[in-house]
Amino acid sequence: MPELCFSCFHTKSFNFMQPIVFNSYISSSIMTDKLLLTIPAELRLQIYSLVLSQPERIQKSHRTSLLSVNRQIRQEVLHLILLKSRYFGTLKSLWEWTSDGRPELLQHVKDVSVSIFKGTLSPPPDPVGVYRRNLTPEPGTGEWWEAQYVSQFGRPGSREATRWQKLQANLPQSFQHRVEAPKHPMVSTWEAFRAISEVRRLWIHLQSFIDSAAARGSKYADEQQLILEMISSCCPKVEEFTVMSRHTSLQYLKNFPRLRRFHFSGYSRSTAEETLEIMKGLTKLEELVLYRYPHNNDDDQLNDGSNPKSYVSLQAEVLAGMNPLKVFRLWHMRSDNPSQHLTVHFIKALKIHQPTLRRLQIVSDRHVSGEVLEALLDFIVTSSVVDLEVKLKAPLSYASRTLADENLQLLMPRTAKACRASFNRGIDREYGDLKMMATDAKPSSELTDYDLQIDWNR
User: Fold this and answer.
1) Could you tell me the strand order of the sheet in which 287-292 lies?
2) With bands split at pLDDT 50, 70 and 90, how would you rate the model's confidence at 167?
3) SS3 category, 349
4) Which long-range contacts does 156-159 make (Cβ < 8 Å, 24+ apart)?
């Protein structure tokens, strides 16, 4: 059969115009297009999903074949492909990917992750007299966000203009509009997120941008605050939001009225009162995840010498005043500092959500006191949780009395099934490892990559 070429999305390279070569062997092994279209649409979608769930090295050829059968099958498969999570390691890759795509296809993108370890928000150098302009744009546009950035951090540094640029600067005003000014990165970022405004799951990891005006002024958090406000205004339909950044205000969450799942460190610039007001306004929020990553060094987060504890905005009083939660997950992956959210006071506040809470995860690399452990076990045994995971370092003095093998099963909630619990003394003379699992809860080691959005096959 002759080779055919079609344009399509390519999930690995993010190229909208990647040539696709028809693979006759795989296509014939599936079935002819006429027979495939006789199957009910629901079954066809299940077949496509099975094909697309294969490892990348196998899936690539299968995906190519499905997209090359005919127009109807291509549209059905393309919709499923666009629903898959997409990862971008730089802002530039996101700009290029969205600028290459057709708007009607980008509206089907629902899951996007942007992890920026290296990048810059510094625009191209501004030659004297050529690119200078007074910004009075319409609110909410890319140019408006550029103006906000410029008002906070200033314009880019000037450089000596060339002879030709100086000549252009001296041209009559009627001719100067023909000189195209460089696009500010804030405009490009706005255009990219505006293009995927229908996204439902958004994961943002912001490191400090290099060579930006904020970097020169040590205002990383202010810069990231502005970016988060812009992203939330562009993508108001987000239902799941994960953010890793410096300590910023949580005011941008007000732009997510559909938010159901929120994942952050529990630290921010918002006060406890402001955080409670924001959280209560999220009427659809049902899952809260508090995660302290191993590399989240409080000293790196602060530049003013203030106490990191002053940035704990998700306090016990806030948790107690929030709308009822169905899922609560706390991962403290630091062994050097205790968790500000794994305390007796915080666990008592969690009891407010006990009637609705169905999934609970408490994972900590830092040991807990006997008082905290007793409060947590009392909460668990009286709860209606059906999915449970607990991994803690418990004090041996308390464990010898309470965590004997014959008592562990009695500490599990009656609503949970397939319960598994163990306590191992290990090599530490003071603490042992407590593990409690129920139902089909996945171990935290499996969930870590999910929440970090790391797909090692990509």
Assistant:
1) 86-88, 111-116, 201-206, 240-244, 261-264, 287-292, 327-332, 359-367, 387-395, 431-438, 420-424
2) low
3) helix
4) 156/122, 156/123, 156/124, 156/125, 156/126, 156/213, 157/125, 157/126, 158/125, 158/126, 158/127, 158/128, 159/125, 159/126, 159/127, 159/128
Q: Which residue has the tokens 């099975």?
A: 50
Collapsing DSSP to helix, strand or coil, 53 comes out as: coil
Place of tokens 């191993």: 294
* Total residue length of the chain: 458
Q: Looking at the predicted structure, is the pLDDT value of residue 450 above 50?
A: no
Q: Which residue has the higher pLDDT, 357 or 247?
A: 357
Name the pLDDT band for 401 (thresholds 50, 70, 90). Answer: low
To 10 degrees, what angle do helices 71-83 and 41-52 make?
A: 60
Identify whether the C-beta of residue 423 lies closer than 8 Å to the C-beta of residue 402.
no
Q: What tokens appear for 202 in the block?
A: 């958004």
Q: Which amino acid is at 368?
A: V
Give me the mean pLDDT over the 136-151 stretch.
Answer: 87
The whole-angstrom separation of Cα 126 and Cα 141 is 21
Per the listing, tokens 């920026």 go with 116
3-class secondary structure, 171? coil
Q: How many CB atoms lie within 10 A of CB 270?
A: 22
Classify residue 410 as left (phi > 0), alpha (psi -120 to 50) or beta: alpha
What is the rounded distance in angstroms from the CA atom of residue 218 to the CA atom of residue 208? 10
CB 358 within 8 A of CB 384: yes
**Per-residue pLDDT tens for 303-314?**
444 566 778 999
Kindly state the tokens that stand for 213. 């005006």
Strand partners, 330: 290, 362
pLDDT of res. 349: 97
The answer on pLDDT for 16 being more than 50 is: no
Q: What is the widest separation between alpha-carbon atoms in the chain? A: 90
